[in-house]
Amino acid sequence: xxxxxxxxxxxxxxxxxTYLGQDIPLVKLAExxxxxxxxxxxxxxxxxxxxxxxxxxxxxxxxxxxxxxxKSLTKVRESxxxxxxxxxxxxxxxxxxxxxxxxxxVASGSIGMDLNLNSLAMKLENTEYExxxxxxxxYKLRDxxxxxxxxxxxxxxxxxxxSETKLRxxxxxxxxxxxxxxxxx
Length: 185
What we know:
Elements (H helix, E strand, L loop, with lengths): L7 E12 L6 H7 L3 E2 L8 E5 L4 E5 L4 E7 L2 H15 L13 E10 L6 H7 L3 E2 L8 E4 L6 E4 L4 E7 L2 H20 L2
Antiparallel strand pairs: 1-5, 1-6, 2-3, 3-4, 4-5, 6-10, 7-8, 8-9, 9-10
């Protein structure tokens, strides 16, 4: 039996959305806060940069917020609290506890084994591999939302999952699929 490789995976970015429960006057927000950009002719949302934790948020006049850049759910929550603090500087009171919904997680790491990408492109379903264009193989894992970038040195990037549990399950499934292929050599 082949030895199971040692995998390491680390979340690099979480994209999450929430709703603040009321309309937000974006022009007033942009005039009040220095860490914002608002150009409604180009994009309907205001960009707010948060220093700690280092994240960015898109805030829409409807009260919808999309937060990106956090590396953990704790940091997402801290960012949303910081956004609320900034919005409340306009004398608006956010009375609801915003429900945070993860839209996407991006993680990177290593699966601890070298990969023959040409061989994998032939043996795995749902792959795209054009080495002249990009050195990684794109692999969409069936029955999950996960999409992987696989590199010949065993480095991986995973995107599309919405929880750390699903992320880890997808990586485990990826490794099992690769082990099955290696056993068929």
